[in-house]
Each structure stands twice: as structure tokens, then as C-alpha cells.
Amino acid sequence: xxxxxxxxxxxxxxxxxxxxxxxxxxxxxxxxxxxxxxxxxxxxxxxxxxxxxxxxxxxxxxxxxxxxxxxxxxxxxxxxxxxxxxxxxxxxxxxxxxxxxxxxxxxxxx
Length: 110
Hints:
CATH superfamily: Winged helix-like DNA-binding domain superfamily/Winged helix DNA-binding domain
Radius of gyration: 16 Å
Strand content: 5-15%
Number of domains: 1
Helix content: 40-55%
Strand order of the largest sheet: 1-3-2
Number of helices: 6
Structural class: alpha+beta
CATH architecture: Orthogonal Bundle
Shape: globular
Largest sheet: 3 strands, antiparallel
CATH class: Mainly Alpha
CATH topology: Arc Repressor Mutant, subunit A
């Protein structure tokens, strides 16, 4: 995660820090959609890619790795040939679902 310059936020505005942390974790064009899609069930890489159809393989891999680094998703690799990889939400990732649903409701008002 990128470090934030403390000089950007004076001490009196430190209550904004949790918002900035959350924003940094969710920054990425596809992350909210991926989290929402994984909420329904465990998914394979190819299913996620098909759901997002405009995403490149490299971009999807990057987004998934970042979410794994932030403990939002679990990646399970089956010891098979060819390899099979599945992704699911962690409890931390699942805790974002009500927020994502509220964002979707807000979007309907626009």
C-alpha cells in the first residue's frame, strides 16, 4: 500500500485517516465489482474474468493480488495439472459487502 504524506492532513483532521485507509484498500477500477461477485460464492479466475469481460488478465491478476495482500480475499490453489485456482471472501472482505450494497443503492438514485 502506498504511504500517505502526513503533511497532507493536519492533526486536527486525523479523523479522516480511516477514510483514506479504506479508500487506498479499495482503489482500483474493478475491486468493488470483484468483491460483490465473490460475495455470492467461491469463484475461479476464469469466472471472474468472464464476469468482468473488459478486464485484461494482467489487470485482474493485479487487482486480485492487491485484495489478497489486504486480506479481503483468499486464494486457494489446487495441486492439479493444469492448476485450478479459486477465490473467496475473507471475513474482512465480507464486512465490506453492506457498504458496497449501500453504494449500489446510492447509485440507483443518480
